[in-house]
Amino acid sequence: AAGRLRGAQESVREELMQLALEVNPVNLSAETPDFVAPEFITKALSEAVTGPNILLNQYTRGYGHPRLVNALSKLYSKLLGHELDPFKEILVTVGAYGALHCAIMALINPGDEVIIIEPFFECYVHITKMAGGIPVFVPLLKNKTKDSISSADWVLDPKEVASKFTNKTKMIIINTPHYPLGKVFTCSELDMVAEFCKKHNVICVMDETYEWLVFKSSEHIRMATLPGMWELTITIGSAGKTFNLTGWKEAIGIGLEIEIERKETPDSYLQDRVERLELKRDCMAKCLSSVGMTPVIPEGGYFIVADFSKLGAKISLNLDEEQGAKDYQFAKWLYRNEKLQVFPFSIFYCVEHKHLGEDFVCFCFVKYEKAEQVFSELKKSLN
Ligand code: PMP
């Protein structure tokens, strides 16, 4: 394993998950509510995957689909009292777990200290260590003056917190509502943490995965709304927890089972797809040749790289070294003049080797039907 995993321990959670698969107990441990996902959400999924807009099944903006980030911005701008820029201040990740990973990996350098409150969701510690950071623990203290009957009796002790903030502290992770205690951090506890964060310029990662599960007697306070904390807070939520869909990965398993049964029969989806794609590959290669490019016939995948250097003077493109690699400029020309979206090939090379890719652009031939028309237009503009 990589050095950064040295000292990593087996996950007890995963070990018990395996045991559960073997003995099939009544599951009262993990987040498997017996209420189903709400119908308006399953309907939205069904429409997204079977509806007329086939693009919804495909890659989108890497930081989050525009419709999703716009909806998040609308909702959270109100909750946070701050107008959120959907394209700059919101990031969609694979689960809250993915967000924790991104936040810690992006901000923690080896030797940086991360304050983690006990009891904690184990991955805070694992990811911190993977980043080379040092977890520093602050236990919630159980109020000893009476028999504890509420999660509110587990409190954050200001003295304990104060003793852990040092000039090495880079981050504190707060989980409210808390897993597994169910504690909802109070305004005074969060205020106290906020003061330390501001004083030491420390980022506060708020794991608010259970934000929509706060019972009547308590109020969910968002750290980002406290004075001076907007700039220092990363707020994390979870769609899986919000809509009870933590298991939506399952469909792929079912799909694979079906495909395994019909593998090497005429009904095989994967076999049929590759045969249809080979035809598209050959058609795309013809299109590229017809406009004067030289395609590199691929043996696999669904991309085709083409050398456009022979077009030379034909393209009304004022190649200017200052403007970046040739292929990058050609790609932009195709976007603007031909409304054709392609990738420049030099992006697949390091800065020193970019020139090796400069004569090529990269096409995807899955969308061949549309391409045929585009290429006939392109041929016209090149003549
Ligand atoms: N944070 C906490 C406190 C959690 O309990 C969980 C799920 N157990 C997560 C994050 C991860 O959430 P997701 O399923 O969205 O990755």
Which CATH architecture of the largest domain would you pick? 3-Layer(aba) Sandwich
- Ligands bound, unique: 4'-deoxy-4'-aminopyridoxal-5'-phosphate
Distance between the termini: 56 Å
Question: Number of helical runs?
Answer: 12
State the order of secondary-structure elements, H for helix, E for strand: HHHHEHEEEHEHEEHHHEEHEEH
Mean pLDDT: 89
Rg calculated over all Cα atoms: 27 Å
**Count of distinct structural domains:** 2
- The stretches of 5 or more residues where confidence is low (pLDDT under 50) are none
Strand residue percentage: 5-15%
CATH C-level category of the largest domain: Alpha Beta
> What summary fits the major beta sheet?
5 strands, parallel
CATH fold annotation of the largest domain:
Aspartate Aminotransferase, domain 2
The percent of residues in helical segments reads: 25-40%
Enzyme class: transferase
Cofactor: pyridoxal 5'-phosphate
InterPro entries: Aminotransferase_I/II_large (IPR004839), Kynurenine-oxoglutarate_AT (IPR051326), PyrdxlP-dep_Trfase (IPR015424), PyrdxlP-dep_Trfase_major (IPR015421), PyrdxlP-dep_Trfase_small (IPR015422)
Pathway: Amino-acid degradation; L-kynurenine degradation; kynurenate from L-kynurenine: step 1/2
Notes on the protein architecture:
The chain has 383 residues and is of the alpha/beta class. The protein folds into two domains: 3-60 and 93-238, Aspartate Aminotransferase, domain 2; 277-382, Aspartate Aminotransferase, domain 1. It has helices spanning 12-23, 39-50, 66-80, 95-107, 123-130, 158-164, 187-200, 239-242, 250-262, 269-290, 326-338, 368-382, and strands at residues 113-118, 134-139, 141-142, 154-155, 169-175, 203-207, 233-236, 294-296, 303-307, 343-344, 360-364. The strands form three sheets. A five-stranded parallel beta sheet has the order 2-1-5-6-7, sandwiched between helices. β1 (113-118), α5 and β2 (134-139) form a beta-alpha-beta unit. α10 runs parallel beside α12 (368-382). It is globular, with a radius of gyration of 27 Å. 24% of the residues are buried. The model has no long low-confidence stretch (mean pLDDT 89). 4'-deoxy-4'-aminopyridoxal-5'-phosphate is lined by residues 31, 95-97, 121, 175, 179, 207, 209, 238, 240-241, 246.
